[in-house]
Amino acid sequence: AAALRELRAQYEALAARNLQAAEDWYRARCARLHERAARSQEAVRASRREAGECRRQLQARLVEMESLRGAHQSLERQLQELEERHNAEAAGLQDTIGQLEDDLRNTKNEMARHLREYQDLLNVKMALDIEIAAYRKLLEGEETLFNLGSGGLPSLNSLPSPTYSFQPRSFSSST
Fold first, then answer.
1. Are 101 and 161 contacting, i.e. CB atoms less than 8 angstroms apart?
2. Does position 122 have pLDDT exceeding 60, yes or no?
3. Could you tell me how far CA 139 lies from the centroid of its own chain?
4. Taking phi first (over 0 means left), then psi (-120 to 50 degrees means alpha), and beta for anything else, what does residue 114 get?
5. According to the model, what pLDDT value does residue 146 have?
6. Disulfide-capable partner of 123 in 6, 37, 60, 171 (CB 3.0 to 4.6 Å)?
């Protein structure tokens, strides 16, 4: 019985040591697991913060993108309006150019007509100058005849008087 008690005491001491070692091992293991869980929880919190920050940045970028898209559409509309206005102005200027070209053509035609009329009047003037010169010669000739003799008057009256008639000719001029 003493041996059994001793054996039992040894077993109980061994069991107590084993229990103590198991409890120490369990506590150490739990401490490490708690430490790892705390680190994991901190990592999860950091990941969540990072994910939240990424979501905020994504939302900011989406808002910025929508704003830029609206600005782009506005600029496209303005560009289209400017092109339409430019095309309308260009068409108006083309019409003005066409009208000015027509006016220039009409003015040139009118100037050519005036030049022809001027040439015709100049030709008539030259013909009249020639006729006046011829009349002067005739008058000078009659004066010389008149001055030649005083008795020559009846003989001058017997000479047939020359008659001149002016026939305007149409002259064509190249312009």
1. no
2. yes
3. 78
4. alpha
5. 82
6. 171
